Amino acid sequence: MKTAIVDKFKTISHKLGINNKPTYVVMAIAAVKGICRPTFTMMDKKEEPRTKKYTAIREGLTELIAIPVYWGLGEASAKIANKILPDELKKQGAKNCMFLGVCVAALLVIPGLCSAAIKPLMDKFYNNEKGALAKHLDIQSEAPDTAVKNLYNTMPAVSRPNFQTFSNRPQYGMKVGGV
Hints:
By secondary structure, the protein is an all-alpha fold. It has helices at residues 2-19, 22-42, 49-84, 90-126, 132-136, 144-154. It has one domain.
């Protein structure tokens, strides 16, 4: 029984290893994040319900945007690699280019699309004028100069060591040899 389970696990792992594409892995992670992050956000007992809802929807939309972008850029970069690379490099080169396409999607394209799309979508979803949601969520902002002055005034004074008597060795225990 135990060897049958181990053999089945090895078979599944081998099949996944042979047929695995970077795009599929990242899309699976994005799908799990798209489900779990909003769920865990909504389970937070300390946060206000409206804030939880806003955050959960925003996280879900981010992953909803991410999944097709990962797929599209990954597959497009693999197709470009297949057209450009010589025959002996096509298989591994396509996977490497697919990985690079997924990285470009994660680093540049998805953050750009999310910045451009999520704010207008959230405004339409909440049917608010510009800034009304922020007022409802009690987001307060100070002028930058005032915030810096307030921060400076609340910071404790720093006591600097006397470098003439400073030693980086511990100052406890027995002192041997006059050190």
